[in-house]
Amino acid sequence: MKYQSQKIAYAYFGVALALFAVQILGGLLAGVVYVMPNTLSELVPFNIIRMLHTNSLIVWLLLGFFGAAYFLIPEESEREIHSPKIAYLQLIILVVGTLGVVVTYLFNLFEGNWLLGKEGREFLEQPKWVKMGIVVAALLFLYNVTMTVLKGKKTAITNILLLGLWALALLFLFAFYNPSNLALDKMYWWYVIHLWVEGVWELIMASILAYLMLKLTGVDREIVEKWLYVIVAAALFSGILGTGHHYYWIGAPGYWQWIGSIFSTLEIVPFFAMMSFAFVMVWKGRRDHPNKAALLWSLGCSVLAFFGAGVWGFLHTLHGVNYYSHGTQITAAHGHLAFYGAYVCLNLAMITYAMPILKQRDPYNQVLNMASFWLMSGGMVFMTFTLTFAGTVQTHMQRVIGDYYMDVQDSIAIFYWMRLGAGVVVFLGVALFLYSVFMPRREMVRPGPIERHRLEDDPDHIPAE
Amino acid sequence: MSEAASELSVLDELPGDLMMWVLIISELLVFGAGLTAFLAVRVTDPVGFAEAQNLLNRTAAGINTIVLVTSGFLAALALPLREAGQNARARLALIAASLLGVLFLVIKGAEFADKAAHGINWESHAFFTFYYLLTGFHAAHVVFGVLILWLVAWRDAPRNIEVGAAFWHMVDLVWVLLFPVIYLLQ
């Protein structure tokens, strides 16, 4: 660790991972409710479990992004973070807000209260005081990192990262605007929901991935930056008007069906570019970085993002297809693999890269971490397949034949059981990941003869910094 | 690194800026997809599409084609002029190109106004949904292109002119593709 203030990231990653555990437990519980619908129905209704599952996902990803920014900006700008105190204050505000959200959801406190009650708008359910806290925290964060970058060296990676983080904060302001007209409500709602994950978050993803590639493969910065600009251009070009794929059936004008279909089809391009980028960099790179686990997560991120966000997104983005598949388990399949591939893996890649440095125990046990990658990713991919089959059958029975919703749900129960099994595997993967990141102190696996020979004699092998 | 260096030089040989070419390819993909969708929907209702098309003003669109191609020629002329050191003439060519772009917009605007006066809008028929989407989207690019031409006439480094002219030729090319498919194809 070159800069002391990078240590801030440790606190952020710690809280992020704790929430990650909450999210997975919530998901597991929701998976149980799908097959045993009366589970906890009085105590914690399904809609509350789902809110916890999705909200904790978003918050831990954001905390991961903040942590990543605090970790990489000092190295890129070549100076300490402007004010570590502000950074910790920001974290405290976010933790208090998160606890407030959990308590408010679970006990449904202050129902209907303008300031304190939950708002009941999917994904943006947070009470208003929490939303305000998020804005304050975001302002503190932006002030802190922007001051750091302004005073230090400016690189393409920090520029794109800041652009993404600023836009993220500004777009969140639409969470405060809630028109009573339902069509308008949905229209603005997507300004947050869509323009985050299919717009500005992609900028954050591309810049973090670029940073990891720079460190892990040792490819020239100039080449990384060229890729970065192309990826970002493709993401914004397709993603902004791609919002149209949410406007097909909400009462917006019909031309959105064509705008949405055409532009959101192109949304696959930046994800394909990110995948190509990661593999070309590894192929060209000459640096033999010891943190193979971080490399595995980075490559896995780009591949699963391409399939989850790109391919599974395209699967139901054309309005002729979406007319039938809208709101079925197809959407759930896409949502799971897209979030996991693009943003969960990205954060875990960054955490896997940064943790050994932050804990000063480089190298550490990579084998367990890599095993957790295969467990988690295998479970997630299987879950995606089961939900895709469930969604296909559901679409046919419910939308083509016209069977009743609940009858159809009974017919596809077998898929929900398999999904629960996949969820258990993901849970085991998460537990293993947390163990491998926090617990072991030293590298436990010695290189075998072939690897040892390669490390000693391979002319291409350059030890990491 | 030698492989990477040689590959990069291919990209570096592109006239103007790599990012402009990324934009141009993206635009061509979008308009290409739009035209393909137009042709696909047309198959479902050839008679309706032909009737709707007869309401368009082919003469105005034909004149607009000549206007835009001439404008493209002037923009292309600016680069060799600038490279020969004739900066004032290069600027003149760019301004003239941009004014023809404005003329295109005036004629196009008259066409849109005429449709509106006859009560035709994007909901009148599937043909007009595509007509407004494709030519409207194209017109927005003409507006943007005119601004870019002004920008590079002001900041007239040869590389800037090259980048600006590349964008303008894309706008040009897209119209040359839209015109026959939307206005003429029977």
Could you state the CATH homologous superfamily of the largest domain in chain A?
A: Cytochrome c oxidase-like, subunit I domain
**Do you know the CATH topology of chain B?**
Four Helix Bundle (Hemerythrin (Met), subunit A)
Can you identify the CATH class of the largest domain in chain A?
Mainly Alpha
Supply the CATH superfamily name of chain B: Cytochrome c oxidase, subunit III, four-helix bundle
Gross morphology of chain A is globular
As residue ranges, the low-confidence spans of chain B are: 1-6
Beta-strand residue fraction of chain B: under 5%
Oligomer: heterodimer
The total count of strands of chain B amounts to: 0
Number of structurally distinct domains of chain B: 1
**Alpha-beta content class of chain A:** mainly alpha
In the CATH hierarchy, the architecture of the largest domain in chain A is Up-down Bundle
Structural Rg of chain B: 19 Å
Mean pLDDT of chain A: 93
The dominant shape of chain B is: elongated
Quick summary of this structure?
Chain B: GO terms for molecular function: cytochrome-c oxidase activity. The complex is a heterodimer of chains A (465) and B (186). Chain A is an all-alpha fold and 465 residues long.
